[in-house]
Amino acid sequence: MTTPDSTPTTVSDRLDAIAEPVCRAHGVELVVIQQVTERGAAVLRVVIDRPGGEDGASGVTLADCQAVSRDLGPALDVHDVLGGAYRLEVSSPGLDRPLVKLGDFDRFRGKLVDIRTRAPRPDGHGGERRRFKGRLLGVDGGDVRVSVDGTDVAVPHAEIARANVVYEY
Fold it and tell me: Going from the N-terminus, what domains does the chain have, and what CATH number goes with each?
């Protein structure tokens, strides 16, 4: 969330505002930033991606992760967004790439996906569910369309708690 003067107000928004330009400068996109606690220590996980070939595979290299980490760490320290010590981890999205932005759902059209919603949603068969695993059909307005067991289901992007590509062998 941002204020009318476009100042980021939440920690998540502030982290995004710092990380996005660093990622862009290195020719990669910011997929997601996660704040977690491991063994009592703060960890900031940054997932980056570089669109690859037609299959949507990541083109992120170890050198990309190192370069983003090298530049992002000092930028985060200067702004002290987390207010203390933390460990920074920069990685590629992996085979089960998270889908976060609406554009991600369009980019990975045709892939098998696993979507979990914040609250139960109609499943197209008269029932409700929170998990929709099926073939991603794309985006229609603010809805993500997925074919689940032969039924097309529209899930509002705002209702998605978590989504990722499912690797097919």
Answer: 11-91 (3.30.300.70), 102-165 (2.30.30.100)
Q: Is 83 left (phi over 0), alpha (psi -120 to 50) or beta?
A: left
Residue 132, Cβ density class (10 Å: 0-12 exposed, 13-18 middle, ≥19 buried): buried
Torsion sign, CA atoms 81, 84, 89, 93:
negative
Residue 78 burial (CB count, 10 A):
9
Q: Is 10 exposed, middle or buried (0-12, 13-18, 19+ CB in 10 A)?
A: exposed
Q: What are phi and psi of 77, to 5 degrees?
A: -65, -40
At 83, which amino acid appears? Answer: G
Task: Express each pLDDT in 40-74 by its tens digit.
Answer: 888 999 999 987 644 555 688 999 999 999 999 99
Q: What is the pLDDT of residue 1?
A: 46
Q: Please name the helix (run of DSSP H) or strand (run of DSSP E) that holds residue 44, with its range, or none.
A: strand 41-49
What is the distance between the alpha carbons of residues 59 and 50, in angstroms, rounded to a whole number?
A: 5
